[in-house]
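Title: Prediction job returns without error message
Component: structure pipeline
Severity: low
Priority: P3
Assignee: unassigned

Description:
Job completed but the reporter wants confirmation the result is attached to the right record. Sequence as submitted:
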Amino acid sequence: MRTVVVEPRPIEDDRKAVGEIRPRQESDIGFQVGGKIISRAVDVGNSVKAGDLLARLDEQDFQNKLRSAQSDVVSAQAVLTEAQATETRQSDLLAKGVTPVANYDAAVKNRRSAEAQLEASKAALDLAQDQLAYTQLKADFDGIVTAVSAEPGQVVGAGQTVLKLAKPDQVDAVFNIAESAFRDRQAGERPAVIVSLLSSPSIVADGIVREVSPIADPTTRTYQVKVSLEKPPVAMRFGASVAGRLKAMTAPVIVLPGSALFDQGGKAAVWLFDAASSTVKLTPVEVARYETDKVVVSSGLSKGDVVVTAGVNRLRDGQHVRLVEGAGS
């Protein structure tokens, strides 16, 4: 009979979660005016620099508005020139006493109205120039196009998303974690995490938990956890599947081989060996978690207990057994 002596000890926390690589900052990019798209200069995966042209709208209507605004400014300037001349004449006549004050006051009023109209016309011209410039959609920052949602020929409204642009140098690994994973964690704790590619586990990156969603997903009842990666490898591209593991040791725990567990009416139990009587006794235990080839026991055992690890299904309470030479711990 093979046994192991219970000895609580810290172990590497090897619980893993599967997630994906996502950009930390991903912006929805759209035109500030509505219109018909006549060209798009980028596709998904393209890298762009700040100021690069991404897409264009048909600008004919905006050019017409610009010409109309320019004409309004010229007209307003002519009206102001005439109003200023009239005010000057009325001022001279008033000084000579050959015109009433009311005529001069009217001239002043007309000059002020003309000035205000000119300012309004100039503001309309600035707006028309801005709107013409808005027909060209340009990148606000260096980034990578992660999604495209509009094609040439499509009519879009102001603010409608045309594409998504992400900053390539700011990367998160995002996981959906069960509530039980936070049971032994302090509020606000930001543990270190080791992230590896699922397709190539040797490619790893260190990270720190940056954000934990305060609200569980209504369907899966899991919490979204974002891990900020430090200098991620080039292979960790957006959308890549990754595994995350806490870079920490647990508190002292009891770890047993999976073969030591015995099913006692649907509950976990183990066989304890009594060296004095050379008999075994079935003892119920609480399992904290199951792993690939071992279990972590949270209660039911004490330091120094001798647990049978092989042939447990052939034992019965009080049975006399003997240890295989070299099998005890």
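Comment from assignee: result matches the submitted record. The first strand starts at residue 3 and ends at 5.
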